[in-house]
């Protein structure tokens, strides 16, 4: 009987144990922190796209380091954000290059002027120093670090991955149509560099390729396929805030793409604010020196930001993309208030929290240190998943709450059942312990379970009948000896007592 109860109890416990891990992630998943993408390294502290900046980002535990590639005149891929070297290097201070300045019309129709990387050899570029590209940021480490090639940065990431701290690379082809037009297409060389760095053989090294131009993504995808590695890279289509992306475009991209990288005001919509001093035709991601903020959030998001409570806020773009299986990685999260909506009060952690609530899957950040600080607050707040489940109901939350309720009920039943079985079991101890094998009698009674000691005391009639002998209750020596020397003597004594009482056979 007891055996049967125990096995039923065991089965119930195993079932509960199996149910628990399957139910809990459903809850936790609802608010999983987005991937941290170190945008150009750590440009809030170091000149962008330098080895030192990337190293620092890896130390802060980012998921991906992000870089842009442009081509040198002699066909090497270097990590620079702009087609021109003016903002991010000291090229303008080199009198010997003065006549290299060039003005051209880019394929998109925009005119650009400056020292184009494609008019310099790699050897020449190696002689330049990187500088902090944003003028109002700390310039202390300008003129300290060099421009890096793509293979060098890939090696840094691979070394980290090989040393057990996996970090992905997230590479953007810069001006791909421009590079094609001057006979220096980027895609094949970029894929060659990846293969040389080991991305063909190390399947565990995360790899994302991104571009504003879907054509470039398709060409890289084709290059990977040609090397027998179809689908090796996840493809992100970057979205410019001036172009509204249609459902048909998202449908078409979802056939081969992994996700979209929208400018963040496309995720949390902004309304213009006079305080923000944004000039009318400014690109929303422009770094205008006189700019104070990017605008105001819409009323629902602004209320959430004001209360620092990120209940149910929604983003139309996130919903449309995720409905098609596409992830959403908005850019760019920066520490300075001028790059945020006014409603965040220049608090980068509040801004990240709102975007997490909007359900984004990754964030491009200029300051990995701040992202790490924010993630720490998110982990500290993790136990509040119950709160977040209750505060934002939906089909998944309902399912999760149902499974947890079932679990709790089951555990309660199991507990009550266990207590009942234990009580019934203890009642039968007395009978059972008469048959306790004598070979266990070592002469030391202290290690026996209290139940056995009680049974011994009861059966030998040692004056303790009916008393509970706790573990610490010393037993009279005479009783111990009787019991220990020979439990069969108990039976013998009983027979004698029976005979003395006039019974007998
Ligand atoms: C820069 O490179 C482009 C493309 O190769 C070329 O057409 C142009 O003449 C070069 N300009 C200078 C100033 O070297
Ligand atoms: C990667 O590791 C190799 C071998 O230890 C080393 O020679 C190289 O300098 C490292 N590269 C970077 C970029 O850290
Ligand atoms: C992609 O490949 C096509 C066909 O080879 C080529 O015409 C086009 O210029 C390439 N586009 C880019 C952006 O590299």
UniProtKB/TrEMBL annotation:
Signal peptide: 1-28
Reactions it catalyzes: a sn-glycero-3-phosphodiester + H2O = an alcohol + sn-glycerol 3-phosphate + H(+)
InterPro entries: GP_PDE_dom (IPR030395), PLC-like_Pdiesterase_TIM-brl (IPR017946)
Alphabetized Pfam families for the sequence: GDPD
Transmembrane segments: 398-423
Domain GP-PDE: 34-375
Keywords of the record: Glycerol metabolism, Hydrolase, Membrane, Signal, Transmembrane, Transmembrane helix
Lineage summary: Eukaryota, Viridiplantae, Chlorophyta, core chlorophytes, Trebouxiophyceae
The family this protein is said to belong to: Belongs to the glycerophosphoryl diester phosphodiesterase family.
EC number: 3.1.4.46
Native source species: Coccomyxa subellipsoidea
SUPFAM superfamilies named in the record: PLC-like phosphodiesterases (SSF51695)
Main enzyme class: hydrolase
Name assigned to this protein: glycerophosphodiester phosphodiesterase
Region Disordered: start-end pairs: 486-505
